[in-house]
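RWD domain-containing protein 4: structure, please.
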Amino acid sequence: MSDPRQEEAEVLASIYDPNELSVSDDYTIEFKLGEHGTPKSMILTIRWPDGYPTVLPTISLDSFYNGHLSTAVKHLIVEELNALAQEQLGTAMTFSLIDYARENAERYFSLSLSSTVNSTAEVTNLAGNYDEQPSKKAEKKVQLTKAQKRAHYRRLDINGELPRGWNWVDVAKHLQQVGPVR
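Here you go.
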């Protein structure tokens, strides 16, 4: 008896263009949605564990390529796809998951684009029952390199003030540059 994951991988490879779908040896499927290089694009990653299709696949949007999508929108997409996968447990569901994501891609992209314009709180209201609170960001300190710190300390004394005589002219050096007076 052959592995159902292998059969489904072959079927998906025959349906989709190799530029859209990639299947790795460890049964990780990456599907590209939208127009490449635009904010209306994303990569959906589905990983089939041992026991698939009776075990839920792992669905994620954690790819670096999806950095333009807000956390709330990613969470919404994964929740909806997991709910669909739960309904279809026991059957080959990857085609259905990809098809559902394709059908709703415009809605996801519009939510993502509106989240860049609107606050994150409004997107969570659109997304439904997403309960994560926006994290408070600590103010960043100015990070200086070692060379910058060294130059800073050379200019200032212990109290942070310019040292006495910092703008004095070295008389001997000045006379050497000017030359003898006639």
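Notes: The chain has two domains: 4-127, 146-178.
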